[in-house]
Amino acid sequence: MGSTSAENNGTGGVGRRDLIKRSAALGLISVPTMSFLSACASSGGDDNGDKAETGEKTAKNPLGANDTAGMEFVLFDGGFGKEYAEDAVKIYEKNFPKAKVKFSATQKIQSTLQPRFNQGTPPDLIDNSGAEQMDMGVLAGKNQLTDLTPLLDAPSYDDPNKKVRDTLRPGIVEMGQLDGDPVWIMYYAYTVYGVWYSQKALDSLDATYPETWDEMLAVCEKAKKQGIAGWTYAGKYPYYLPFSLYPMIGKVGGVEVLDAIDNLEPNAWKHPAVKACFDAYYELYAKGYILKGTPGLDHIQSQTAWAKGKALFIPNGSWVENESANVIPADFNLAVSAPTGIDSSDKMPFGTIWASGGEPFIVPAKAKNGTGGMEQLRIMLSEASSKNFTSKVKSLTAYNGGTDGITLTPGLKSGVAALEKAGDNVVNPRLQDWYVQLQKEKIGVSGLGEMMAGRLTPAEAIKKIQAYADETAKDTSIKHYKHQ
């Protein structure tokens, strides 16, 4: 979600999801989304004649970053923290000692930066994530972003004979391509989504991770008899549910079902695989396997309850290990699995998982020193910076490697194993990148959230979500995307 979560730092700051209001359950468009859409309707600002001149291109500075120009970097202050970025900034400052870097971190990306986009004075590099994530489709559609192809074609930081693009994990470049060849986004983290659990807790029930839904229900019933809920989730932010539900739909019906949903095709949500998976999840509610009070819990509260052993399973992304490090017991033995399927008739094998780029970095088109922003990204995509990130935040990066010599934490080790098990069976739904409001407020809060709270039947939820998708498809003010 762009997909890391906000730190619960106790400062009273607004978390990444705090702006998603319950009124969205009525299908209302949130004020921040509306204001940003209208703000981006005009390009804003002038032609930015004060852009930094390009510096001399050398072996150590292949992009030609101006070695005396200032560079501004704004990071989303979320579950990954900011230390990894600060460390990368120090390398930039060492390489360009005459250049002053202005670094800041905030959870309020949109409200902080929207006025600056309007004025034509955006920063040079932005980690566009969190509840106030700016809509990437809108930004690209209004020519607000810089094509990052020069970065991808530049020599990598470690090996001048290898381009940056050749050092990245499969699918990362394609994720940044919203429509055609330009690459507007560099997803820095590599997130494994799925069902997270304590191996110790499963062992104590003499159970193994369930591969079919009948097995899932049996494990949940076993847990219920011990006073443990089968599942919990971020009830206030139910767009977490797709982290396991979407790959389950792909497993049951094939990746083409997910592609049809992403493409906003008519009746895509009415596919039998969607109905089967919605029915399965609703059964968790109907049989009392959801932790009591879950619909009122935020991400931190649900993760804390789960970490304390009140529930077995939680849908989440690989940032959860770092974000919940202060509440996960030392002997928890954190693990992640691909979602449970329905049965042997599923189109894809057990192990089919959602893994994709996270933490979307962008360089604004009107940035004064966009080349400097791209150079900062080139530094971050080095093996050393990648290892630093993985060591500090317990998650992988877009760099294809960076784990050699690192002692992997339980969750990270499990995530790597899950990727190995999946092999080519990795799915990557794009709704959360292409249509932020549709995914979070409408499908998430108004659809899935209401269903899992028992206020909608699966059939009613599907009908409602399909109507939202159709509405988005017909909205000419929204730029639409399709799988190529």
TrEMBL record:
Keywords in alphabetical order: Signal, Transport
InterPro entries the record matches: Bact_solute-bd_prot1 (IPR050490), Chitin_NgcE (IPR022386), SBP (IPR006059), TAT_signal (IPR006311)
Subcellular location: Cell envelope
Primary residence: other
Extent of Basic and acidic residues compositional bias: 48-59
Record Pfam families: SBP_bac_1 (PF01547)
Domain of life according to the entry: Bacteria
Region called Disordered, residue ranges: 42-64
Gene3D superfamilies, per the entry: Periplasmic binding protein-like II
PROSITE patterns per record: TAT
Stretches that traverse the bilayer: none
Family note: Belongs to the bacterial solute-binding protein 1 family.
Protein name: N-acetylglucosamine/diacetylchitobiose ABC transporter substrate-binding protein
Gene from which this protein is expressed: ngcE
